[in-house]
């Protein structure tokens, strides 16, 4: 499909699609000799994901990082988004009922208590939005990096030494069961070390461990301390998170 056809199909502007192409967020499968952008079925699926994440409130730069990651799972993303929409629909249905009852109350058709007037209003966070942000958000990483950047040269050196020491200790026990006392003791040290600089929930900690295996860049760096360490840490982190919830 040409860019104008895609824009008309989706309901967005041609300029928006051009912008996505310019920033490397959505580059069409091919461009004709005359310069026309041609979008494939896969491109349309990627565009759908982009718009889903925009609905979640993610900035374009972050969306690009998410969908280009080797660990990105399109089905998982759709399932989380579906849960968010169901939660939103439920809240809207409750508010519509409150509006209908309020109209009847104003017409004198029914009596309405003060409590009933505010049914449907919910200012708490959507639990599925939190799930999405824990899966793809980078708040904990940003906080951690910000804290590290505040350290003096000597403090950074001490932090790096502690970081390397923990990895070396874990590498020495990587052939043990991730459920063993030694493994869980070592991974507990890692969890508390991460939380010195960031704010990792147990779910985020578990997700981070999965990323160690899903993202080959993590795997390569971690396995420098010992082959198989990334897989061992993922399993131990998952067990630690599940046991301590």
UniProtKB/TrEMBL annotation:
Keyword Nucleotide-binding: no
GO molecular function: DNA binding; DNA-binding transcription factor activity
SUPFAM superfamilies: Antibiotic binding domain of TipA-like multidrug resistance regulators (SSF89082), Putative DNA-binding domain (SSF46955)
Signal keyword on record: no
Pfam families according to UniProt: MerR_1, TipAS
PROSITE patterns hit by this protein: HTH_MERR_2
InterPro entries for the chain: DNA-bd_dom_put_sf (IPR009061), MerR-type_HTH_dom (IPR000551), MerR_fam (IPR047057), TipA-like_antibiotic-bd (IPR036244), TipAS_dom (IPR012925)
Domain HTH merR-type: 1-69
Keywords tagged on the record: Activator, DNA-binding, Transcription, Transcription regulation
Name recorded for this polypeptide: MerR family transcriptional regulator
């Amino acid at each position: 499909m040409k860019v104008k056809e895609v824009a008309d199909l989706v309901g967005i502007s041609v300029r928006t699609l051009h912008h996505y192409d310019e920033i490397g967020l959505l580059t069409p499968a091919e461009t004709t000799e005359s310069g026309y952008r041609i979008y494939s079925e896969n491109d349309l699926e990627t565009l759908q994901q982009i718009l889903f994440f925009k609905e979640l409130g993610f900035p374009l730069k972050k969306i690009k990082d998410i969908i280009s990651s080797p660990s990105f799972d399109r089905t998982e993303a759709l399932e989380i988004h579906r849960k968010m929409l169901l939660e939103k629909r439920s809240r809207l249905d409750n508010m519509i009922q409150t509006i209908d009852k309020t109209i009847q109350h104003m017409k004198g058709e029914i009596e309405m208590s003060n409590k009933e007037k505010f049914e449907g209003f919910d200012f708490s966070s959507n639990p599925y939005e939190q799930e999405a942000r824990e899966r793809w958000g980078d708040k904990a990483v940003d906080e951690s990096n910000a804290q590290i950047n505040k350290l003096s040269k000597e403090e950074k050196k001490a932090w790096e030494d502690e970081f390397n020491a923990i990895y070396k200790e874990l590498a020495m026990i990587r052939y043990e069961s991730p459920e063993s006392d030694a493994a869980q003791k070592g991974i507990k040290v890692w969890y508390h070390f991460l939380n010195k600089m960031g704010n990792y929930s147990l779910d985020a900690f578990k997700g981070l461990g999965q990323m160690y295996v899903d993202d080959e860049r993590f795997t390569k760096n971690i396995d420098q301390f010992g082959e198989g360490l990334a897989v061992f840490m993922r399993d131990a982190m998952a067990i630690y998170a599940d046991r301590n919830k």
